[in-house]
Every structure is written in structure tokens, then in C-alpha cells.
Amino acid sequence: MIKSFLYFVSHRQIEILVKKINKAIIAVILFTVTSKLLNAQVQGEQAIQNQFNTYQANNLQEKIFVHTDKNNYVPGEICWFKIYNVDAYFNQPIDLGKCAYVEILDRNNKPVLQSKVALDKGVGDGSIYLPATIISGNYRLRAYTSWMKNYSADYFFEKGLTIINVQKAQPENSTAQKKVYSIAFFPEGGNLVNELESKVGFKFCDQFGKGIYGEGFLLNDKGDTITSFHSLHAGMGSFLFTPQTGVKYRALVNFAGSDHQIQELPQAFNSGYVMRVEMNNNRQIKIMVKAQDKNPSPTAAVFLFVQTRNVLKAVKSNSIQNGQATFLLEDTIPGEGISQFTIFNENHQPVCERLFFKQPKRILQITASTDEQLYALRKKININTTSASEEGKSIPANMSMAVYRVDSFNIVDAEDINSYLLLSSDLAGAVESPEYYFRKDNDSVTEAADNLMLTQGWRRFRWEDILLSKKNGFNFLPEINGHIVNGKVTATRPGLTLNNIKYYLSVTGTPPQFQTAVTDENGKIKFDMKNFYGGSDIILQPDSKLDSFYKIDIESPFFKGYSQKPFPFFGFTLQNAPLLKIYVASQVQNAFSYDKLNQSSQTGLDTNAFYLKPDATYYLDNYVRFTTLEEVLREYVREVNVMDRRNKFYLTVIDERRKIFFDNPPLILLDGIPFFDFNKMIKYDPLKIRKLEIVYRQYYLGNDTFDGILNFTTYKGDAGGYEIDPRATVVDYEGIQLQRDFYSPEYATEKQFNSRIPDFRNLLFWSPKIITDQTGKEQTSFYSSDIPGRYAIVIQGVSDDGRAGAKVLYLDVKK
Fold first, then answer.
1. How far apart, in whole angstroms, are the C-alpha atoms of residue 507 and residue 515?
2. CB 263 within 8 A of CB 253
3. Less Cβ crowding at N or C end of the chain, within 10 Å?
4. Collapsed DSSP state (helix, strand, coil) of residue 452
5. Distances (CA, A) of 740 to 401, 734, 766, 783, 796
6. Per-residue DSSP letters for 728-748?
7. Cβ distance 770 to 400 under 8 Å?
8. What angle do CA 80, 138, 434 make, to 5 degrees?
């Protein structure tokens, strides 16, 4: 019995020991597995983050917003605008490029007007005169920089303009008479997965992309109704739905009247992931991820990546437990505006994604007030403007202001700089009534914003490019010094190399332009032009030592690609009374004030030549006027040595540092045009030359080194009478536009007030330079016109730290 008891005890102890050992082994195994899993999750988070940071560092992006004085015009009016160029991440003004491209496109994406506009420290302003030949219709104004051309045209700024020409009506648009509906469904996260519940966003639009109301029924392949739904704001809405394996679904949607349409739902997959984003009562963002897998892993890792305009906000990891993983984010983590939530699987592949909108609180607070509410005709109007942070602290800001008459034709634009930078610019397609999403936060606005995120999802990059470490091929350089003229050199004989072919570019005028550049292996050539303003001929000459077996073609700097945004319906009639009054007012203004309306200037323009300050300057009128250029140079230009060798002239310039003449001839220019045969130049009439500038030192320009420079300037600045090298190519080319001065008459004196010149301005005032200082204050003054009515004062701008804001107020003018 004792032996039996001892046997039992021994076996019992062994069993306990074995269980303890097993528990320890299991604990070690679980610890090892958990440690490996946690370590894998940490490594996964870091890997995704590192790839994203690398992509972001190599892909600086810009955003442009354009504030136009108004949206609707008649021929003869001027479209005034200001450009705000900011970085796409923090919305801060960016001084990357010195030139922006502005185009007005018709409904066929054909450019009808184009212009280049100077940028300085992230801002620029300009104007476009609308000619009498332009036809009535809806147009699209778009703006972009050279650097933005490396990306899709969908990133360019675009806004609609309407132009009414009573003399040239637009041909009738046949699609305007036919109702066409668009129905689209967008599963939250990207895909439908069988047996998993998803939120499905939808949008109903007409043929012009405008949201419309519709009521729908979700039907299975037996015709049974699964659920019903209807659109809310701007034709958008959502419903919950769990697809079943082997079942196909379609939606029957009824529109106004008896119109209806059937649309198939996107295909549901047997395996995959779905996500759901919602706010809980603790002001937390709840992100639920569900997985359906034929071969499920019990502890499959998933990663949540959160970024706002390419700025990393959070990277989190979790494990799929019982087919689901949940992430909780404090609502302070996503940035203001649009954030992107991406779910990655354990192989670091993106499997779900959606956008999230957070109403901005960090905005530029603009306040403005007029000294009176009601004004008589031709009376002075004073506007006091202030800029402050959201806390009310005064901050400086760079703003623009338009004051124009509002009526049934001209209304205030719903899109402003704040809604564009924080909403529209990060979404696909056009956003209807963008100001709606910036109203006081309530359930209706929150739901509408969520539907917008579901249906117009957008991003400024592709995850595939990031994960594959794909490097973007940048074909367009940022124009950090000024406009870049691009060309293509081709050989006229086979077998000739296209690499390292030198060309010289010249522009006559003030200041004259001269640049030199060489081709790459593909014959591409770039001339970096600084202070290249106005329209002029550009003259391109090959290296004088080359035979004429090459030709050069100058490329258009305007982008060829276009976005696919639909044009709105053109519904204005020419018989509308306000339109006729506006048209007549424009004609009167042009008849009496045309010269004043089209005065151009360029304050602060650097008029120095490319070599800046010359070492010596000779104004030939200050000396005896000789009849030959040889006599001029020999008699009183001591820095130049003229030699005649067997009836061939040679020039050299003194090296002032060494007090001897250079061995090689200098660069010789006539109004910016280089001349390599001085025997030809020596015959030029010196009586046409106003001055001679000399650089008596070695000068480096591009890949060239010149032993001094002689720059002859004529009285007219056009090299008149000189025959250009026959191998030269002359191209009519528009540089950066000269700024047109906004004309606003004054009525400060009795004589001015009683002037009989009619003042039919509908646009009372436009200023692209409303600049507040550290006190945040600025005062603006102008005069009312002879046209009574209600006028809108629209102010928009941005601060140095990236706060954007807008303000609209009204004043009245009576007879």
C-alpha cells in the first residue's frame, strides 16, 4: 500500500512537473512568437515609414490658387488675377519658381489665351484682356508652374469662367438638350468582400458633373429589394451592405419625373479586406479592419498609416483577431483638411484606403469694414482690413481685393483660397459648393463631408511608386531664376552627334538678353532667361565654328495634357438685361479710357545687362562723332586694341588686372546679338550707336569663358540695319507679361467730380497687393463710379506660416 501510495505520488509529481514544463515551454513559445510578431510589426511600421519619407523627400510638390477679380466677363473687359503658390504639404508660400503659366481653355481644351506671369516669394499677379473675337461660352482658367508639369494636369489649379459676347454666340451644345445620368458606387476602403459588411458611397450626376437628387433600391439577382437609399447634399450618399457569395447586385435609381436607370454594383471578392471609419463618443476616430481569407493566419499583422497632405501623422500596427482588428486615433492626430488612412497587410501591401476630412480651425482671420454702408456716385470709399490668427493675434498677410457689382450675372464665387487649399485641391473632380463643408460643424455637414471623402477619393501619389522606390523622371526643371526657353536641335545630315552642340540666344530690347547653352545627348537645350519680359523676337545662332548642319526648334512651354473635369452647362441668354448693360458699360469704358486701361509697367524690373555692371561705359555723343567704328575704337576707347592683319580686323580687350591685352577676342554684342565676324561689325554705322559698355575681365557664362565683353547699344535697341547671320533662327516669342496698371479714376477735386467723361466701371477696385504688417492692418481707398447698385468686396490671402483665409462684405452705391 505504501508502495502504491509512493507510486501514485511519484506519478502525480511527475504529471505536475510535466504540466509546469509544458506551460513553461508554451509560455516561451508564446513569448517567442509574440516577440517576433511585435518585432515584425515594429519593423513593418518602420519600413513603410522609411519608404514614405524617402518618396516625400524626393517629390516636393506645389499648389497654386488663383484669385480672379470675378468669374463672369464680356469682351473688352480685363480678367485680373493674383497667383498664390504654396507648398502642397504646409500651404506656406514657396519661392521655388519665378514663373507661372496661365491659360484660358475652351470646352474642347483648346487654349484661347495664354500668358506667363512672374512669381516672387510665392506670389504673382497679372491680367488677360478678353478680345472682341472670343465667343460666348464657359471656359476654364488653369494655372501651373514648370515644376508642376512633372505631375498630372489634375494637380493644376482650375476654375470656371463664363464669357458672354453678344456678337459671337457659342454654337448650341447638343448634349445640353439630352439628359444623361451618371451613377457611381464607391465601397469604403476600396473593395466589396463577400460576407463582410461595408459602407458603400454613391454619387448621382448629370452630364455636366453636377450632383442631382435620386432615390435608389438595391436588388439581388432574383429581383429582391435588399435596401433602399437616396442622395443627400450634391447627389451623394451612402448605405450599409453585406454582399453574399455567388450573388450579383444592381441598383435601380429613380430621378426627377419618370427617368430611371439601372447600375451594376462593383464586383465583390471572396477574400480581402474592408475598412470602416467612424467617430465614437470619446472624440476618437475608430478604424475597423475586417479580413476574409481562405487560408487565414491566426495573428496576421495589419498596419495603419495616417498622413495629411504627405505629412506623416501616425503609423500603427495590430493583429487580426477573429477576422478583425481595430485602431483608435485621437481626433487631434490627423491634420486639418484631408487626411489619408491606408491599411497595409503583413507583406506591406496597401489593401484598404479612404480619406478623412477634419474641419480647419487654424485659418487666417480677415476682417474688413467700410467707413460707410451707403455711398453716392463718385464718392471716396475707405476700407480698413486686418489679418489675425484664429486666436485673434495680429499677423502679417499677403492678400488681394476685388470690389465689383453683383447681380444675376456676377455672383460671389463659392470657392475661396481656404476651401481650395484644404479641400478641393486634394480631391478628384470638381467640388460643388465647397463652402458648405466649412460651415458650423453639425451632423448634416459631417455626413456630407464623409460622403464626399467616400466618393471623390484622391491622392497626390501612388503607393506603388513609394513601395517600389520608383524615382520620378523629372523632365521639367523649376524656373528658379526666371523663364526657361526649351528647344530641340536636330541634324540635317545623318550620322551627326546631337550632344554638346552650342547655341546662343539673344533678345533685343531693354534689357537685352543673351544666353548660351549646349544640348544634351538627345538634342534638348535649355536657356535660363532672367528678366525676360514682353513679346519679342528671340534670335538663336549656332557656334560660329560649326557648319550649318543643325537646326533648332523652340518648344511651347505650355503643358499639352488636360484634366477630364466636365464643363458645366452654358445656360446664359444674350437677351438678359444685366448682360446688355454690362456689355454697353464695357464698350463705353474702352471708348473713353482705353489708353489708361492698357497701361503696362514693371516696377522693380532689373534693367541691367546679364553681366550686371560694366567696367567702362562710353556714351558716344560725349565724344567726337567719327564716321567709322574703327576710328571710334582707336581714338578714345583705350581698353580695346584694334589690329588690322591683311585686311582682317582683330579685337582684344585689356586685362585690367594684369595690364596686358587678352590673347583671345572678346564677346561682341549689338543690342544683345552676338557677332563673331568683326570684319562685318566694323562696317556698322557708328552714328546709330548710343553707348558702348566694356567688361575688361574674363567672364563666365554657362559653359563659356569670354576674354572680355563689348556691348554696343543703339538708340532704338533693335540692332537696326544689321544683317543677322543667315544660319540664325528668329522666333516670335512671348516672355513674361508686363504688369498692366489697374485704372481707377479719382474724384478728389470739384473739377474731377464734374468731369463729363463717363465712368461705367462695374469693377470699382482691384489690388493684388493688400499687405498687412505685424500689426495686421491696411487701409485701402478708391472711388465709386457712375453705376449704382450693390458691390461685393472680396478679400483673400495667406500668411507666411500657411494660414489661408477669405472675407466677403458688401456696400451699396445710390444715385
1. 9
2. yes
3. N
4. helix
5. 16, 15, 12, 20, 21
6. -EEEEEE-BPPEEPPP-----
7. yes
8. 75
**What's the DSSP call for residue 321?**
B
Highest mean pLDDT among 14-28, 325-339, 507-521, 599-613: 325-339
Strand intervals (E) in 249-396 = 249-254, 260-264, 268-269, 272-279, 284-292, 301-308, 311-319, 324-330, 337-344, 350-358, 365-370, 374-375, 380-388
Contacts by 288-291 with C-beta closer than 8 Å and gap 24+?
Answer: 288/324, 288/325, 288/326, 288/327, 289/318, 289/320, 289/324, 289/325, 289/326, 289/327, 289/343, 289/352, 290/193, 290/196, 290/197, 290/323, 290/324, 291/320, 291/323, 291/324, 291/325
Helix (H) or strand (E) holding 115: strand 111-118
Backbone angles phi, psi at 462, to 5 degrees: -115, 130
Rounded-to-integer distance, Cα 676 and Cα 686, Å: 18
Instruction: Quote the cell numbers at residue 461.
Output: 501619389
Amino acid at 379: K
Residue 222 burial (CB < 10 Å; 0-12/13-18/19+)?
Answer: exposed
Residues 6+ apart with CB under 8 A from 124: 82, 83, 85, 100, 117, 118
Residues 6 or more apart whose Cβ sits within 8 Å of residue 151: 61, 460
Tracing cell 503658390 back to the chain, one arrives at 85
How far is it, in rounded angstroms, from Cα 770 to Cα 779?
9
**For residues 110 and 566, is the Cβ–Cβ distance under 8 A?**
no
Residue with cell 580686323: 649
The residue with cell 582707336 is 634
Please state, for a pLDDT cut of 90, what percent of the chain lies above it. Answer: 66
Enter the C-alpha cell of residue 278: 467612424
- The candidate with the shortest Cα–Cα distance to 78, out of 157, 163, 174, is 163
> Which amino acid is located at 733 in the chain?
Y
Residue bearing cell 494637380: 155
Length of the chain: 815
Q: Which of helix, strand or coil describes residue 557?
A: coil
Q: SS in 3 state form for 709-730? A: EEEEEECCCCCCCCCCCCCCEE
Distance CA 674, CA 724 (A): 9
Confidence of residue 647 (pLDDT cuts 50, 70, 90): confident
CA 76 to CA 760: how far, in whole Å? 13
Amino acid symbol at 781? S
Q: Are 386 and 807 in contact (CB under 8 A)?
A: no
Q: In the structure grid, which three cell numbers stand for residue 190, read together? A: 476600396
Question: Per residue in 473-487, pLDDT tens?
Answer: 688 999 999 999 999
pLDDT, residue 469, reads 62
Q: Which of 87, 79, 85 is nearest to 141 (CA)?
A: 79
Task: Record the cell numbers describing residue 273, joined without a space.
Answer: 479586406
3-state SS assignment for residue 582: helix
- Local structure of 368: helix, strand or coil: strand
C-alpha cell at 308: 495629411
Neighbours of 333 (CB within 10 A): 15
> What are 349-371's pLDDT values in tens digits?
899 999 999 999 999 999 999 99
Amino acid in position 458: W
702: left (phi over 0), alpha (psi -120 to 50) or beta: left
> Is residue 223 over pLDDT 90?
yes
Please name which of 314, 302, 301 lies closest in space to residue 340, comparing C-alpha atoms: 314
**Ordered domains of the chain (ranges, CATH):** 64-174 (2.60.40.1930), 650-734 (no CATH)
Give the DSSP letter string of 36-84: HHHHHHHHHHHHHHHHHHHHHHT---EEEEEEES-SEE-TT-EEEEEEE
Cα–Cα distances in angstroms (integers) from residue 474 to residues 146, 147, 149, 481, 621, in the given order: 10, 8, 9, 18, 51
Strand positions, DSSP E, 372-523: 374-375, 380-388, 397-405, 484-491, 502-507, 513-518
**Which one-letter DSSP state was computed for residue 555?**
P
Task: Look at residue 282 in the predicted model and tell me its pLDDT.
Answer: 80
CB atoms within 10 A of CB 48: 22
